[in-house]
Specification:
alpha+beta; Topoisomerase I, Chain A, domain 4; Gyrase A, domain 2; two-stranded antiparallel sheet; 5 helices; 58% helix
Length: 184
């Protein structure tokens, strides 16, 4: 029973770390990266649809991204969704067949803003990890009558180790993203 609680907590924490890494990828750096556009939702016939389902994203140059829609009638909606996306600061151009996005060079001030944004996202992810730890601890405390106190103390130490490892993973991903953002 203790092993089940710890395994469940570890799995949930793994998912939280992956979600944090995906969230970090959506913050733009000086280079064009198709992952930045994963959270773009396009109003396609009245329903919000992820951009990746409506178009292919190609990266022909370091600061240019080409969006080639599968359905040409969605071109205007795709262009509008990209323009409305917060924290991108891009102005897409539409030539009737494709949408071309040229990423402007980041200023030092904008880079620092993005670092603050990424740090906030990292802190949110750490809070989520700590909440998962708290829930797992409550689940372990509920087993107190079924298992010995020594086993419970050992399980809590193991849970703390798992939590620390996941927080360290988030810190490492955060450090890499900050270095990428500050690189000129």
């Amino acid at each position: 029973m203790i092993a089940d609680v710890l395994a469940d907590a570890g799995t949930r924490m793994d998912r939280a770390v992956e979600a944090a890494k995906e969230d970090f990828a959506t913050v733009r750096t000086g280079r064009a990266n198709p992952q930045m556009f994963q959270k773009v939702l396009v109003d396609y016939y009245g329903s919000p649809t992820p951009l990746a389902q409506l178009a292919s994203l190609n990266n022909p140059e370091a600061r240019t991204l080409v969006v080639n829609p599968y359905d040409k009638s969605a071109l205007k909606a795709i262009e509008q969704a990209i323009r409305d996306m917060p924290n991108l600061g891009v102005n897409p151009t539409n030539d009737g067949n494709i949408v071309r996005i040229t990423m402007p060079e980041l200023t030092e001030e904008r880079r620092k803003e993005y670092v603050k944004l990424v740090r906030g996202k990292g802190e949110d992810a750490k809070v989520q990890i700590r909440n998962l730890r708290r829930k797992a601890k409550d689940d372990l405390d509920a087993l107190k009558s079924d298992v010995g106190e020594d086993e419970l103390v050992r399980a809590e130490k193991e849970l703390d180790g798992v939590t620390r490892a996941h927080v360290d993973q988030i810190d490492e991903a955060l450090k890499r993203k900050e270095a990428e953002l500050l690189e000129v």
